[in-house]
Specification:
Blueprint: H1 14-32, E1 44-49, H2 55-66, E2 70-74, H3 87-97, E3 100-104, H4 108-117, E4 122-124, H5 132-146, E5 153-157, H6 162-174, E6 177-181, H7 190-196, E7 200-203, H8 206-210, E8 215-218, H9 230-236, H10 244-247, E9 255-258, H11 280-298
Parallel strand pairs: 1-2, 1-3, 3-4, 5-6, 5-8, 6-7, 8-9
Bound molecules: phosphoric acid mono(formamide)ester (CP) and norvaline.
């Protein structure tokens, strides 16, 4: 039961995270050059999705294949988990057959419980609390375009959701200042705010939050599982739309990131992804490279006998 898990950015040291990003950039260059790199031959990743996904599923599945292994997609609809088999029992069985497990779910405690019973690495592919794999790609994207993020100012605009919580962890691990602008009542989890301490500042006015920012990021106003709140959120979050005009108030060399999927006309203006300051497509691609670096780090290569 001593496998290394990745449930949160706090499961790695800052030095390990920096190494993961450097490796992701190397793996990206290798792929561009057509170099085959298959350290995970004969290795199998199980992927348990209790919520929808485009990028996370594709990047883990393609990543495993490119590293020489395989990935198996599972959903509660077609496993015994959906019929009440305990999480711990499922973890014991899955980890006897697989080399790593990625989970996307609702309650973060489900992933923690699974990991507590798993003999193989467990990776958080998004929970209601955190989305650490996305932050690997976000940090890679900033660092490859602008160099170190240490000491920079990042503005998070919109919902204090799982992405915002993860930016709070990233502020600690990558050592930047995080300005968060959100409506009252939609602040991030107080535990993550406390963790970030003086690295985080709350604002109500998004214009104040983006002033001087080197990176601006946002996310959907209604996360998966909150669909019944959509109408209320559409009204409340209106002043928090990120537009070209809002970015004009940030640093001259600001970058804009969005984890996607985007809702144009809601959290971003219709034209924002076409703005040269937006690097959201590179960010999406970097899910692949960052997670390949993570898989290489967590999953032991097969030994040739
Ligand atoms: N950003 C992200 O996690 O996208 P998916 O929901 O498509 O996986
Ligand atoms: N906050 C969003 C992120 C989607 C990638 C959600 O949880 O739905």
């Amino acid at each position: 039961m001593n496998a290394r898990h990745f449930l949160s950015l706090m499961d790695c040291t800052p030095a390990e995270l920096a190494q993961l990003i450097a490796r992701a950039i190397e793996l990206k260059a290798m792929r561009r050059q057509g170099i085959l790199h298959e350290p995970l031959r004969n290795r199998v990743l199980g992927m348990l999705f209790e919520k929808a996904s485009t990028r996370t599923r594709l990047s883990f599945e393609a990543g495993m294949i490119q590293l020489g292994g395989q990935a198996i997609f599972l959903s509660p609809r077609d496993t015994q988990l959906g019929r009440g088999e305990p999480i711990g029992d499922t973890a014991i069985v899955m980890s006897r057959m697989l080399d790593a497990v990625m989970i996307r779910t609702f309650a973060h405690s489900m992933i923690e419980e699974f990991a507590a019973h798993s003999q193989v690495p467990v990776i958080n592919g998004l929970s209601d609390d955190l989305h650490p794999c996305q932050l690997l790609a976000d940090m890679q994207t900033f660092i490859e375009q602008r160099g170190s993020i240490k000491g920079k100012t990042v503005a998070w605009i919109g919902d204090g959701n799982n992405m915002c919580n993860t930016y709070l962890e990233a502020a600690v691990q990558f050592d930047f200042q995080l300005h968060i602008a959100c409506p009252e009542g939609y602040e991030p989890d107080p535990a993550f705010l406390a963790l970030a301490g003086e690295r985080a500042t709350l604002f109500r006015d998004p214009r104040e939050a983006v002033r001087g920012a080197h990176l601006v990021s946002t996310d959907v106003w209604t996360s998966m599982g909150q669909e019944e709140e959509t109408a209320k959120r559409l009204v409340l979050f209106q002043p928090y739309q990120v537009s070209r005009e809002l970015l004009d108030l940030a640093a001259a060399d600001v970058l804009f990131l969005h984890c996607l999927p985007a809702h144009r006309g809601e959290e971003i203006s219709l034209d924002l992804l076409e703005d040269p300051r937006s690097v959201a497509w590179d960010q999406a691609e970097n899910r692949l490279h960052a997670q390949k670096a993570l898989l290489e780090f967590l999953v032991p290569a097969a030994r040739l006998s």
